[in-house]
Structures are given as C-alpha cells and as structure tokens.
Design goal:
4-stranded antiparallel beta sheet, 134 residues, 1 helix, mainly beta, 12% helix
Length: 134
Amino acid sequence: MNRYPFILFLICLVLLISCSSPTGQKDESIAAITDGGDISMQIGGQGDDNQACPSTPITISLPEGSYVDFWITSATGYHIRTLIDHEYHNAEVIELAWDFNNDKGTTVYDGFYLFNVKAGSFTAAVLYFVRTNI
C-alpha cells in the first residue's frame, strides 16, 4: 500500500493549521470522539515551536481507564521512540515530554514526526515538525 499520498495530505494539513493562526502560534492538537468518550491529544505548549526547548510537552486526556500506547515514528513510518508501552491508565490527563531522542538515545534529525496514541479501541496520530538544529 502506498502511504505517500496520505503523508503528503497530513503535511499539508499541519502546514495549513500552523499558518492559519493570526498570532503566529502553532497549536498541533487532535480531539476525537469514540464510543461516546472524548479522548484528546495535544502536542507542544501555547506558542511552542520547539525552538530552544530541550523537550516537547505532550498531553493526552482519557475519559475512562484503558491500556495506553504512545510512540513516535518518522513521517516515512520508521519507529523512533516509545514513551508509553501498553500501560494501564485511569481516566486522567497523562503528561509526557519528548527530548527529541530515539530509543537508542540519539538526537533525531529535523523533520516531520508522527505522534501516535492508542487507548482502548481509539487510535490517532498527529504530525509534528521537529527542529533540533537551531
């Protein structure tokens, strides 16, 4: 299956969202409704474009308890980092931070990365641009 049209669509969507803010602040976030529950994921803080930041904050809101996986892949699908590996979380807000390193501890290159979350039957991905060479 060719994933390039889908990846190109996500890149265009993120660029559209990033450029549409009147204050120039980026807000890469996703919210979805599944089985009557509202699960949301937000990447970065208000006005955060990860310049001069040692990490990017990640917030996941769970309306009910479930097993959660959170991992980061490159835009081309290569596994980069696992931050949550099938851990049970109650209905809560999970706060994480990614230090721009892969699972081996090496700093990643500038580029687009997919932040993936799976909680119960809900799965979503957010495309995020990382700039490590400032």
